[in-house]
Amino acid sequence: MKKTILLFFSLLLVATLVISSQSDIVNHPSCPYCGMDRSKFSFSRMLLIYDDGSEVGTCSVRCAAVDMVNNLDKAPVQMLVGDYFTDELIDAETAIWVIGGDRPGVMSRRAKWAFADQSGAEDFLAENNGDLANLEEALQAAYTDLYEDTRMIRERRKARRARMAAEQTTANQ
After folding, report:
1. Sign of torsion, CA 160 162 166 168?
2. Which domain holds residue 62?
3. Residue 4: Cβ within 10 Å count
4. Average pLDDT for 52-75
5. In this structure, is residue 127 part of a structural domain?
6. Number of folded domains that form the chain
7. pTM for this prediction
8. Is residue 46 part of a domain?
């Protein structure tokens, strides 16, 4: 009986930790800039908390950069990012970032991934290449890539709309 109770409370604790660690996804289920499901992209999501108490949840550092451009009069007091391997939110400023590599990024051709520790980043680099960076370098890369990434997204959405229109025409015949 004691083992059953202990097991129950252990499972309850784990469930509580998982739910509380992803409460940002409940509060911000989709990215306000691209509409992507933040739960699906929990490994790249960001949560920005501003000096006025407002917060925004995005799918990636690319969309976080867009938000910071749109909110120049607010200063982020905390920036959290999903750890690539664990999906847990970590401090974006102390995270080890990897820019580029063989794996495509979220909303960006040039990937920008965050890791809680150096060993995670090095494990990723061993398989996928890229360059180690800090948050400032990741944000600078996001701003630099913004034009090309926006163009790529527009082209993909235009192609998707054309495909959907063709499918609708075929279905109506």
Report:
1. positive
2. 28-166
3. 8
4. 97
5. yes
6. 1
7. 0.81
8. yes
